Every structure is written in structure tokens, then in C-alpha cells.
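User: These chains co-purify. Model them together.
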Amino acid sequence: MTGFMLILRRDLHLAMRQGMDSLMVVMFFVIAVVLFPFGVGPESNILARIAPGVIWVAALLAAMLSLERLFQTDYEDGSLELLALQPIALEITVMAKVVAHWLTTGLPLIVAAPLLAVLMNLPDEGFVILIVALVLGTPTLSLIGAIGAALILGSRRGGILLSLLVLPLYIPVLIFGVSAVDAVISGFEAKAQLLILGGIFFAALPLCPWVGAAALRQALD
Amino acid sequence: MFHRFANPTRFLKLADVIQPWIAGATLVLLGAGLYFGLFASPPDYQQGETVRLMYIHVPSAWMAMFCYSALAGSCAVALIWKHPLADLAARATAPIGAAFTFLALVTGSLWGKPMWGTWWVWDARLTSMLVLLFLYLGYIALNNAFDDPQRGSKSSAILALVGFVNVPIIKFSVDWWNTLHQPASVVKMGGPSIHADILLPLLLMAAAFTTYYLWVLLIRIRTEVALGKIRARQMQKAQTGYKG
Amino acid sequence: METISQYLNMGGHGGFIWPAYIIVFVVMVALMIVSRRSLKNAQEELETLTRGADGRSPDRETTREAEQ
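Assistant: Joint model of the three components:
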């Protein structure tokens, strides 16, 4: 557990010092969503109809933007090999990095989401469920993304490749995340959607660090 | 038993023997399938002549899924037992599977126009096929993204297995999503009972597509074996060159 | 003649059925041709490599072959 905290603290510290990265992700998120009213027109009922989908898709893309650097910098400067040599299991290292990624990307997105919901005319009853769905869904995005980020280490065209690998795997989270918000807005319960989102999260929680560590091992061979 | 075909030389000998048989079987099955599909079967009472699209669409879709299972299976064998041929089989299967997935989408679209009145509907099956195509393309892209082919095949093998675990989840979520957004005009394809006149060409074409897959697979594995030997030779040359 | 054009028309759906069959045929044949050509290229390259190596240092090449 101490090793976990050490890596987490180190990554957060690095992120803090660079500072801009988190901010850039949130700015991308905001700008991507703001483009939609220009694209589809400012009618508030149309915006309200597409709001959950637009916010979720933008969150997915924003979360993916910062994934490439999850292991890349450590891989290039050799600290990833040092981390692998530590007595800490590589799975724990991956887990710590995923948590750091979520804290610096997922959490800021969740904080920014209500503002975007206002801009997109999301009906009032959708706000709480949007936040709850994002809280349940974005950790899964970081978990699945960690596998992709580990797989592309040392490849050509890493960033674009990463999106091709990871986005299809994000589809279930997107579907249930959006459908939870849609259900509440149209007066239904979203219990099933939230349960499935939670189920996907709890399935990904042990599996993704395990697979991610396997991917790291073959990258370090 | 398991490692009996691990040796590429032994595999090449075996491939030489069975390849002409597979090629012959493909041509015979394809000929029979086309004859029964296009000439000797009556139009369906419900779908009319468009039922003839089923004889290429459904086998393509089957092969798309079969190839992905074969891909994932080969990747698992390659990762767990480090079986050298499994690696080559996986790499050889991916483009064939992608081609079948593409064909399933195109023929589905050409079937959809007369049946549903549009080229594309976000039908659960079509959507799942589209995602499957993305999984294939991701695998191929990752496989070719490394200077070291060993890295590429290991990385993409992990990706193929992750994708394989995800396919049922994606299928489930797309089904869920589709029932929420089901367009009213969609007619369910197929039916509870398939007539024997339809079943015969369908099975013949499916068998032909399977033997076609094996045929191309053998050719592509032989190519991979040859490419591996070329790389080994070039390494050897570089090394002997160093020593003077 | 009448029956042939009637047959090709496929009850008004010929415009969808024939292109589908043609696309499937073209893709399958193209994949086969591409696969065969790359096999041929690889085999030829391997052959020239082996022969070239044999010409320069035959004994070293054969000992290495025996080692493998």
C-alpha cells in the first residue's frame, strides 16, 4: 500500500508541477462541447435533447487526450524500468497511475460538467444523474485507457493509434452513461443503467491493471 | 501432440499437401453454392429475390465472427504457450477477418436498401459489426506499428484478447441501446423457420467461405514463415558483416 | 433474351443483388491475389538471399543452417 501511495504522490506531484496539463484537458472538454451549438444551431430544445450525448462524447475524447502520456514520459526517461524493478507489483504501479490519471483528468471533467450542462440547456433533473454517471463511468475510462497506453509504448504514431484502440472499447460506457441521463430526463428511473456502469467499473477494476501490467512487461522486455 | 506442428518446416510440408485439396474444395463448394443460390432456388415468399443476398451476407457475418474467435484463440495460444505458429496464424487471420467484416457491412447495406428503404440503419447487428471492424483495424494497426515485429505481435495479441472479452459487453450494450432507439420501420431479418431451399445454398456458401479462409490463411502463414526466415538471414548477414 | 433480362432484373432488386455479389467476388479475389503475390515476393527474396550468401561464404552458411 505504501508503494501505491508513493507512486500516486509522485505522479500527482509531477502533474501539479506541470499544472497546465489538467487545465488543457478541461479546456478541450469545454471547447469541444461549445462547438456543438454552432454546429446544430442554438435552439434550446435540440441542445437539451443532445446534451447528455455531447457531454459524454466530449468527456471521452478529453480523457483520451491525456492518456498517451500516462506511461510515455516514464518509458522514455527510463523511470518505468526502475519502477518495474521495485519490489512493488507492476499491477499496483499501474493502479496508482490510473488513480493519478483519474484525479488529474476525470475529476476536473466532472467538476466542469455542470457548467457545460447549463450551456447545453440540460433539464434541471438531469444534473445530479449526469454527475453520478460521470463519477461511475470516468474511472472505467482511465482503467481501459491504461491498457491502450501501455500497448502503444515504443510504437510509431502512438497518439492516433491509441484512439483507434481505445475508443471502440469505450462504447459500452458511453451507451450506459448517456442512457442513464436520458432516462431520468424523460421521467424514468436510471437504476439499471447505473448498476451496469458500476458493474463494468468493478469488472475493470481488477482486470485492467492486470492486463496493463502484462502489456508493460512485454514493452520493457 | 500440441507442438507437433510448431516446427515451421513440418508445417510447410503439411501445407503443401493440403493446400491443393482446400483450393479444390473452395472452388467446388463456391460453384455449388452459387448454382443453388442464384439459379436452383425459388425466391422467398416474404423477401422475394432479395433473399439471395442472404447467401453472401450471412456467411460473411459468420466468418467475421469466426475469424475474430480464431484470432483471439491464436493470440491466447501465442501468449500462453509461446507457440510460434499461433503468432503467425493470428497475424495472417486479421486481414481476412477484416475483409469479411467489411463484406458483411457492405452486403448488409445493400440488403437494407430494398428491405428498410435506407442504406444504413443503426440496427444492433450492423452496429456490432461496425465495432468489430474497428477492433480488427486496431489490431492490424497495432501489429504494424512497431519496428520490431515481435513487439507488434505481442502487443496486438493482448489487444485482441481484451477486444474478445469486450465483444459480448459491446454486443449487450448495443442491443440495449438499440431497443431504446429502435426505428419503427425495421423488419426483423430471417424468420423462425428457414426453408430447406434456402438452407442448402446458405450452408454451401458458408462452407465455401470457410475453406476460402483456410486457403488464404495457409498462403499468408507461408508468407509469414518466409518473411521470418528473410529477417533471420538479414540479421545473420549483418552479424557476419561485423565480424569481417 | 427476355428470360435472361428478367432473370438479371431479380424482381426489381437486381440493382442490389448483383453489385453485392460483384463486391464480394472482387474483394475475395483481390485478397487472394495480394496474398499470393506477397508469398511469391517473399519466396523470391528468400531465394536470392540464400543464393547470395551461398556464393560468398558457403561453408559458414551451411554450418549456421546446421546449427538451427
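Residues 24 and 30 of chain C are 10 Å apart (CA to CA).
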